[in-house]
Amino acid sequence: MGQCSIKVTEPVKNRDGLFGIGMLPKFWGKGYGTEATKFIVDHAFRVLGVQRVSLNVLEGNEAAIAVYKKCKAIGFKEEGRKRRANWHDGHWEDGLSMGVLDEEWAKRYWRK
């Protein structure tokens, strides 16, 4: 189906988990990405003890951005933009930095 990861390079000091996901096209649009994202982010906060989860995504990946913003138990927010980060199909795309903090996640998670 694909892969999903959380990378915590400074587990004691900054406790920032870098999230990544990639899925084969035949599995897009079926909810698997949303389910995997929720699971990994929940795991990062509850088990790994991170204080934030960050990710980078290209602006043209509208489906992924929608997943990151809509997940009720997550709620990633855009935190920054790297202009002209990637040349794709004859045009430049900006790269977006997104993140969610532990208290934001907890507020959404426990509201269920």
Strand-helix topology:
Blueprint: E1 2-8, E2 16-23, H1 32-46, E3 52-58, H2 62-70, E4 77-88, E5 91-101, H3 102-109
Parallel strand pairs: 2-3
Antiparallel strand pairs: 1-2, 3-5, 4-5
Describe the structure.
The chain has 112 residues and is an alpha+beta fold. It has one domain (2-109): 3-Layer(aba) Sandwich (Aminopeptidase). It is built from three helices and five strands. A five-stranded mixed sheet has the order 1-2-3-5-4. The longest helix is centred in the middle third of the chain and has 15 residues, at 32-46. It is globular. It starts with a strand and ends with a helix. The relative contact order is 0.18.
Please identify, by name, the CATH architecture: 3-Layer(aba) Sandwich
Kindly state the percentage of residues in helix: 25-40%
- How many β-strand runs? 5
Radius of gyration: 14 Å
Number of domains: 1
Q: How is the largest sheet built, in terms of strand order?
A: 1-2-3-5-4
Shape: globular
Portion of residues in beta strands equals 35-45%
Query: Could you spell the SSE succession in H and E letters?
Result: EEHEHEEH
Largest sheet: 5 strands, mixed
- Please identify the oligomeric state: single chain
The CATH topology: Aminopeptidase
Average predicted local confidence, pLDDT: 91
SS class: alpha+beta
Uncertain residue segments: none
Highest-level CATH class: Alpha Beta
